[in-house]
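Appendix B: complex inputs.
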Amino acid sequence: MEKLSPEFEKPLLKLEKRIKTLELEPEKNRKQIVALKEKLRKIRKKIFTRLTPYQRVQLARHPLRPIYSDYLKLIFSDFTEFHGDRYFADDEAVICGFGKIDEIKCAVIGQEKGKTTSEKLRRNFGMSHPEGYRKALRIMKLAEKFRIPVITFVDTPGAYPGIGAEERGQAAAIANNLREMMTLEVPIVTSVIGEGGSGGALAIAVSNYIMMLANAIYSVISPEGCASILFRDASRASEAAAALKLTSYDLLRLGVIDEIVSEPFGGAHLAPKRQAEILKKNIKKAIAEVEEKGNYSRNRYEKFRKMGKIKIAK
Amino acid sequence: MSLKSENGLWFKCFSCNEILYKNQIEENFYICPKCGNYFRIGWKEYLKILADEGTFRPLFENIRSDDPLEFRDVKKYKKRLKETQKKTSLTEAVKCGTCSVNLQRIAIGILDFAFMGGSMGSAVGERLTLLIEKAANSKLPLVIVSASGGARMHEGIYSLMQMAKTAGALALLAKKRVPYISILTNPTTGGVSASFAFLGDVIISEPRALIGFAGPRVIEQTIRQKLPEGFQRAEFLLEKGQIDMIVTRRNLKDVVSRVLKIFL
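Resulting structure:
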């Protein structure tokens, strides 16, 4: 895993490793351990108080970052998974079902990247086929029928670009979700927990309330894709990441999200349980807030209606 | 695909190299009389094909792109906009308005590929949303002709949100029971296909048009194999059940008005 960690984390990992070795003989190395821990704290602070946009992209894709299935376990109780889109298949890149967040019953829908290599393949790295979006919409409609709020978790590089996906109407599936989610008469609360990859992310994020983990990203195109198309050089992804304004801080400023959910210093992967607690508290608060406002579909449309920036010419 | 001219009168077909006279092409609905190749055309030509002459009234021309991200790639987005406006005499990648089709008044939006690949940024999204809202409020049937690579990267997340905005407006239109015909032309991909373009009550495509979510190059890179001939072309989509019909330019106007009559 260490090999897969982003470059900027490596000095930290090296220090941590040294501290661990020294801690084998704590009595003898006490002074050195204290000094190194202080050094570690200082370096971490230096790195994490001014992360570049591309470093955040790397954190959002961090191999140890908690994923949807972690939050599903840590936030919800009595979860029952429902499978399939009733047309073609069960897309395992999306996990849907019903559960409880404390005493609140809710539908839970999220994109799952998987952890081990075999899980990742089974989950297609969190990239849905049309069936995934259709399953998600089926569960949302079911939730609406029984007046149950919908909670969604976004973590996907994007909708899958493949032959089967195109044959079975990837574009139509996403488009349909956008329109139907807009009309849903129950609260929809979304958390972007890792990567918000374009239309594939939006297809489960037409919501009343959208929160984003501090180091998550949400973008119209991946920085690599943007670099290769617009900068004509895929290696300029870091520049593209900055230009796209895809961090949680950018998105809050642009009025596209409602809230940034703080992450433990150094990233969510350093304290997944604590991260889940924070997220849970925020989700509960968001449901209450959306419920209090009521008029779910109308308020949702008004929220999205305002998005964008135009000029009026004389 | 598009036309190249030496002097504005004679053109060469890119597909079969036939030299063609301007009038010859116009009379043949911008299709090569020799090989049947569809030339790429802009909003004016589509309007000519679809609308009764002299009935078009433009709308929302004063809505223009801003530069919310102060974006620059190899060029500043602001500069690119200005240059494109000058080059195309368009103010944005979509032309909106009302017109008559065989005497039936409709609301119409036509995306123009010449303007930054017909890409959808805030201004395109806003114009289309206003058009859809107008269609809903005045009970005017809606026709949108798409030609677009997708969302406009230069406006980042705002471009993505136009997908939700236009789709949401179409939900209002559906509630009012106003028909919407979506016409797909070459190409219709990305954020445009994955929003309003695939939400038509009826979806019509031009022959051979490239239609899909992901572009063929991206798919080939992902699956590391060559795509079969005809993949993502209109005929392929018809076979897979993704569109209602393929209609030639010559028949487009009559089919549109016939379809509208079914629902009105």
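Chain A has a mean pLDDT of 96.
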